[in-house]
Amino acid sequence: MKKIDALLDEYGESHQNKTNKLIHWICVPLIYFSIVGLVRAIPFDLLSNFSIDKNYLNWASISIVLVMIYYLTMSFQLTIGMSLFSILCLFICNKIILLQLSILWISVIVFIVAWIFQFIGHNIEGKKPSFLRDLQFLLIGPAWLMHFIYKKLNIKY
C-alpha cells in the first residue's frame, strides 16, 4: 500500500458520519484558504530592494511550494489538484487585498468559524480530529477531499 493510501485510510477512519463528512467538505477548504490568507498577511520585505510583484512572491506562495513538495513525496497527481486549489486560494487572497479588505481579519474569522464547525462535526462523529494524533493530518485533510474528486472523475492518484 502506498503511503498516501495509508494516510487517506487512516484519516477516513475518523470521518465516517455523513454530517461530519459534509461539514468537512465545507470547512476543510475554508480552513486551507484561511491559512493561505493568514500566511499571505505576513509582510514580505525580504526582497524589498528588488522590484517584485508581491502577488506572486510572498510568504504564502513560498509556503505553498513547500506544502506541494510534501504532497509530491506521496502523489504527483494529487499534487496537481492541490496546486490548482492552492493557486485559487492565493488568487482569492490577492483579490481581497486589491479590494483593500483585511485579508488578516477575514482569514482569522473564517479560520475560527470553520474550526468551530469542524469540532461540532467531530463531536457528532464521536471521534477526535486526526491531527490531534499527528500534525501531518492537517495536510492530509485537503488531500482526502481531493482524492474523492479524483475518484469521481476516474483519475488515478
Give a nutshell description of this structure.
Helix content is 70%, strand content 0%.
Write the layout of secondary structure elements.
Layout: H1 3-13, H2 18-40, H3 59-72, H4 76-98, H5 103-125, H6 137-152
Helix pairs in contact: 1-6, 2-3, 2-4, 2-5, 3-4
Description of the molecule:
The chain is mainly α. It has one domain (3-7, 18-40, 54-152). 70% of the residues lie in helices and 0% in strands. It is built from six helices and no strands. The chain has helices at residues 3-13, 18-40, 59-72, 76-98, 103-125, 137-152. Helix 2 packs across helix 3, helix 2 (18-40) runs antiparallel to helix 5 and helix 3 runs antiparallel to helix 4. The radius of gyration is 16 Å and the shape is globular.
Attribute tags:
157 residues; 6 helices; 70% helix; globular
Count of spatially separate domains: 1
Strand-residue proportion: under 5%
Supply the helix-strand structural class.
Answer: mainly alpha
Rg computed from alpha carbons, rounded to a whole number of angstroms: 16 Å
Termini, distance in Å? Answer: 13 Å
Number of strand segments: 0
Average pLDDT, to the nearest integer? 93
**Low-confidence runs:** none
Tally the helices: 6
General shape = globular
Q: Share of helix among residues?
A: over 70%
